[in-house]
Amino acid sequence: MRLHGQDVSAATLARKAGDLGAAGGVRSVVLADGAERGLRVLEFRTGSGLGFDVLVDRAMDIGPADYRGASFGWRSATGLRHPGLHENADEDGLGWLRSFSGLLVTGGLDHAFGAEELDASHFRYSRRATTKNGLHGRIANTPARLIGYGEDRVGDEVVLWAEGEVRQAAVFGEHLRLRRRIEADLGGTEIRLTDTVTNAGFDPTPHMYLYHINVGWPFLDEGARFEAPVVRTLWQSDSVAEQGFSHLVLPGPQPGFVEQVYEHELRPDADGRVKARLANDRLGVFFEVEYDSGEFPVFLQWMHLREGAYTIGLEPSTNHVGGARAAREDGTLTWLGPGESRGYHTTLRVGALAQPSA
């Protein structure tokens, strides 16, 4: 482990400090004020300058995150709102936007993208012919059952971890379960996500999945660069042509900015992995997402550069931006059979930009 400029083994660390907390670790807290009151949080600190909060009661998503004193997990005006305040059908399905904040907000498990009312005849219940789905589905506002968390010694290293299960279920409806494990190495600068979504019910059930990964100030700032192996841009919102802001070199906060959205085709490496990043030359840092292109065949870039809500989203997705109805019509929607699972293996990484050679 690299800690404070030294290579330190787990045994050496034990000699130097009677409590691992001197170097880093995972701490369980409960937030106690305002709209976040009662929210269970696991605070990860790796000792390398990377810190992040896992929101147990919000699907084990990741809220605030920082690196060497600089925040990169987006903090919106909603704050970390307790899921008990959420109403899925509120505001014609847009109530999700009243709790939209943090580095990682998960979309799914059966629906992602815009609010839609869709056929539910596959559940064979006459009183529920359709299902109303809010923006990006229900999972992000569902508490997890915490399976465990802690620090494991693996050889000369220490792995910080947390694991939980989130259940999305209804009588005469879906029964989907998300098993999420989050790991980070003591002395490391990456967050590893391992997600498994299982149809625990007995009816074929739609499955859509999206990571809304949101980077905020100061990692995002005027002059920050979006970098990815873009083969071509498959789609972009009308606001791109109307506003004309670059999606490669980003401006500072803009008054009245209308969100710009792109769907890019990205080129995977020989192992099928894809990397996309935001680089900030002024701070000399980057944030990067790495994912499996077979698990997430779609990548979206979301730009919301409005004053007071300044962020960029890097979004691996199972489906195209057209949403659930379009996926049903063109045959790209995933249907999980009884007992069937899908796995997702993703890494979020921060670090210092390489210095140009003299």
From TrEMBL:
Pfam families in the cross-refs: DUF4432
* Annotated GO MF terms: carbohydrate binding
Which sequence ranges form a coiled-coil region, renumbered to this chain? none
Question: What is the protein's name according to its record?
Answer: Galactose mutarotase
What organism is listed for this UniProt entry? Answer: Actinopolymorpha pittospori
Q: What is the lineage of its organism?
A: Bacteria, Bacillati, Actinomycetota, Actinomycetes, Propionibacteriales
